[in-house]
Amino acid sequence: MRIFSVALAAMLTVATGTAFAQSQEGNAGIRPSGFSDDSIGYRYGSGFREPGVTDSRHANGIDIPKHILNLQHVDGGTMWSNFINVDFLFSSSRDPAAGGIHRGAMEVYAIYRGDLSLNQALHTNAFSVGNILQDVTLQIGGDINTKNTQFAPQKDLIVFGPDFHWNIPGGFLSTAFQVAHEWNQNGIVGKGVNFAPTWEIEAVWSVPLTFTRLPLSFEGFFNVVGPKGRDGFNASTKVEILTEPRLTLDVGALAFDRPHKLDLSIGYQYWLNKFGNNATNVPGSIASTAWFGVRYHF
After folding, report:
1. Measured CA distances, 20 to 10, 87, 97, 110, 146 (Å)
2. How far apart, in Å, are the Cα atoms of 40 and each of 105, 160, 250?
3. How much is the pLDDT for 15?
4. Residue 59 to residues 56, 196, 235, Cα–Cα distance (Å)
5. pLDDT digit string, tens, across residues 1-30
6. Contact 196, 182 (CB under 8 A)
7. What local confidence, expressed as pLDDT, does residue 9 receive?
8. Is residue 33 very low, low, confident or very high in pLDDT (cuts 50, 70, 90)?
9. What gap in Å lies between CA 47 and CA 51, rounded to an integer?
């Protein structure tokens, strides 16, 4: 039997952490029952941004180099699939840790997503439509993070909603429509924040570029998150948009005849109204940067 398994993206969901879906590799794809994959990855980009992080020469926000170490697990069963992703993000001193302007901040950001196949759970094909729609899953998950900056975020996020899985030959496309609720902390003003529940749309994809005659694919995610009330500074949050397309080359298949072992990627991140901050008022709330990465599958 075949079902949908969570494969990462970016996901995913917004809040006031430093790297919300930016480490996601795809949210859902068709995998055989019993499929499991564990991997470790590394990414680097020189132009990440953080809201409110500026200097005397860059009043509209400063580019921040980041090294990102990633651990990831994906598995798929008969009805249920799991995705776990943990990012360790190391900023340069341009994004300083609390109490030391010459030491860059470190963040840990963890994501869980679980998907229940409605076709499998209900023993039906009602959630399939010809060669267009493969299945609909119910997705539940959460994000947690911590970062050692003066802002000191402590994010807790829950998400729930249907995820539509479309037929893409050799690849996948899914679109999730979710309800999200976030709790966080604002260390600058010294209080916790209970954001208003909001909506979000998450799309993730992987399309093999067979015309290149290379083991190359076009992958990525596109997320839209609605306003979530007022933040810890009592400012109204805005609609947030995050997208991260990338090209991924299966180097293991190309050079070593070992497919799905070693991947190289180049990507681009665009983040508007980061964490819900108003980009017209808060410098650093628009991020635009290229990055490269490598991933090894055990």
Report:
1. 7, 10, 19, 9, 12
2. 22, 27, 15
3. 32
4. 6, 30, 20
5. 333 333 322 233 333 333 333 334 344 344
6. no
7. 29
8. low
9. 13
How deeply is 180 buried, as exposed, middle or buried, from its count of CB atoms within 10 A (0-12, 13-18, 19+)?
Answer: buried
pLDDT the model gives residue 45:
96
Q: Residues 132, 166: contact at Cβ < 8 Å?
A: yes
Whether this model's pTM surpasses 0.70 = yes
Task: Give just the sign of the alpha carbon dihedral 22, 72, 116, 170.
Answer: positive
Q: Which two tokens stand for residue 127?
A: 């959630």
* Phi (first) and psi of residue 79, to 5 degrees: -120, -25
**DSSP codes of every residue in 25-54:** EES-EEEETT-EEEEEEEEEEEEE--TT--
Distance CA 52, CA 279 (A): 10
The residue type found at 226 is G
Q: Answer yes or no: are the C-beta atoms of 66 and 89 closer than 8 Å.
A: yes
| Beta strand pairing call for 2-5 and 29-32 | antiparallel
Tokens of 103: 């030491």
**Which run of H or of E encompasses 118?**
helix 118-121
Task: Residue 132: name the closest of 101, 175, 102, 96 by CA.
Answer: 175
Domain boundaries, the chain: 2-136+147-176+194-260+274-297
The amino acid sitting at 151 is: F
The pLDDT of residue 1: 36
**Pairing of β 80-91 and β 106-117:** antiparallel
